[in-house]
Design goal:
Elements lengths: L22 E4 L4 E4 L2 E2 H7 L2 H10 L5 H12 L6 H8 L7 H15 L8 H26 L13 H10 L5 H13 L7 H10 L5 H12 L7 H12 L5 H11 L16 H13 L6 H18 L8 H11 L7 H22 L26
Antiparallel strand pairs: 1-2, 2-3
């Protein structure tokens, strides 16, 4: 096709890149389903490892299947001593997402998985990646603050164990439930940037550690997973509920992005945001930190007034950071925890990609020049 006739769609918006049965979004109605089951139902009735099994293997597990899957993950959550030593030598001022990407990539050397067509290789790669990401995140946080990493506690649930490795204490039931639901709500979201990255790298038959490391790198950008951190910075910058309206109006006047607001697909409030807002209200009910929630809800009110006619509403990032803060999670761990949940979706898409694999090789529209003369270096100006 002639370059002049080619139509370029920025960001590939609305262009199907694959057929998938993993998750579904109806942006007009605010519906998110995993394998046909509403995410809200799974958040209420299930747990993260059960949802991970659903995403990866295509159906809810039996009790015996879930028991085996949980046990396999539980007993593969420790990190090799050499990996921990490697983490000790990484710069303390590095962002946890950089730690997570680097260590995930390095794991591929300790657990070679180049034969991705082997069912056994695929299964144990899935187990190790889901199991070890929380240990990496918790160990990274403690090492960066001069503390020794805490070994996983095999008697705790997946979510409770992460909290324990982070703070050396067992969470209360509400905290455990909220962390588990946070992982569920972040587990998959159709063909987003990091999932597309995972599928592109997966299409080359690269090993799963390389695939997940590439997806983590994609997620680290502030327009993707990093937005939840930016929401907290924005709310702190606003400072009071009285400052909300002039702050938002100034942003709109300058056409600046309001972090945590708007979504390419959702034309109503993100259903995940509604669940997290409810958790935030529970967490801040009797807390001195309730101020940040009040500011957030005032931002939502003003944004609704100003932008609802454009179908712009809060997305998951708007309330996820507030919930994390209510749980005492440091701001720079928000996105790594996002990755801990999303790894199940990335792996599900990787496995789906392999079923009918064809390497991604999109075209381009060339807009440069032709037949340019070569200029010797002494004549260049």
């Amino acid at each position: 096709m002639d370059e002049k006739e080619m139509e370029v769609v920025p960001g590939l918006a609305g262009i199907p890149a694959a057929e998938s049965s993993i998750s579904f979004i109806d942006g007009e109605k605010g519906i998110l389903e995993y394998r046909g089951i509403l995410a809200e139902v799974l958040a209420e009735k299930s747990n993260f490892l059960e949802v991970s099994y659903l995403l990866i293997f295509g159906r809810l597990p039996t009790s015996e299947e879930l028991k085996k899957f949980k046990n396999d993950i539980t007993y593969h959550s420790r990190l090799k001593l050499k990996i921990l030593r490697m983490m000790e030598f990484l710069p303390e001022n590095g962002h946890p997402m950089e730690y997570l990407q680097s260590v995930t990539s390095a794991m591929g050397m300790y657990y070679p998985a180049r034969n991705v067509l082997s069912e056994d290789v695929r299964y144990w790669s899935v187990v190790r990646l889901i199991a070890k990401l929380p240990t990496i995140v918790a160990s990274c946080h403690r090492l960066r603050h001069g503390d020794a990493p805490i070994q996983p506690n095999n008697d705790l649930s997946f979510a409770a164990n992460f909290y324990y490795m982070l703070f050396e204490k067992i969470p209360d039931p509400l905290t455990e439930k909220i962390l588990d639901v946070m992982l569920i709500l972040h587990a998959d979201h159709t063909m987003n940037a990091s999932t597309f990255s995972a599928r592109v790298v997966g299409s080359t038959l690269a090993d799963p550690y390389t695939i997940v490391a590439s997806a983590i790198g994609t997620l680290s950008g502030p327009l993707h997973g990093g937005a939840n951190e930016e929401v907290i910075h924005m709310l702190n910058e606003i400072g009071t509920t009285e400052n909300v309206r002039p702050y938002i109006e100034k942003k709109l006047e300058k056409r600046d992005k309001i972090m945590g607001v708007g979504h390419r697909i959702y034309k109503t409030k993100d259903p995940r945001s509604t669940i997290l807002q409810s958790f935030a209200q529970q967490l801040f009910k009797d807390s001195k930190k309730v101020k940040i929630l009040k500011i957030a809800e005032e931002v939502e009110k003003v944004v609704h007034e100003k932008l609802s006619h454009k179908k712009i509403f809060p997305n998951i990032d708007f309330y996820s950071g507030i919930v994390f803060q209510g749980l005492g999670i440091p701001t720079d761990l928000f996105t790594p925890i996002f990755a801990m949940g999303r790894v199940s979706g990335w792996l599900a898409h990787w496995l789906e990609q392999l079923k009918t694999n064809k390497i991604y090789r999109p075209d381009q529209k060339y807009i440069g020049t032709h037949n340019q003369p070569y200029t010797p270096i002494e004549e260049r100006r």
